[in-house]
Amino acid sequence: METYNVVQFFEDGQYEYVRRNVSAEEAVKASKHYTTSIAASYGFVTRVIITDCGDYCVFEWKHGVGVTFPTRQDIEDSRRTTC
Fold it and tell me: Per-residue pLDDT averaged across 55-75, rounded?
């Protein structure tokens, strides 16, 4: 099973791993929690990412912008890909 990490970044540049080595489902639930938290709504949390076990960013949210990765185009392209 592939595992994921969830990291939140703060306005002062510091960051915190809020989940480590969790399932995709748990990572998505955690990222939703941290992107909709009171701290995020006030801008204390400026960025939330999910990384895979290879430390590649597979999701990014930024305060005031929303989800920046994957883009809508990335999602549409992945739906068209066949194996």
Answer: 88
Which amino acid is located at 33 in the chain? H
The pTM assigned to this predicted structure is 0.85
Nearby residues of 34 by Cβ (< 8 Å), 6 or more positions away:
6, 8, 18, 40, 45, 48
Show the tokens assigned to 66: 């929303």
Contact 67, 59 (CB under 8 A): yes
User: Where is pLDDT greater, at 31 or 55?
Assistant: 31
Q: Which amino acid is at 81?
A: T
Q: Burial, 29: exposed, middle or buried (Cβ in 10 Å; 0-12, 13-18, 19+)?
A: middle
SS3 content of the chain, % helix, strand, coil (to 5): 30, 40, 30
* Six token digits for residue 58: 């597979």
Strands 57-62 and 15-22: unpaired
What would the mean pLDDT of 5-24 be, rounded to a whole number? 97
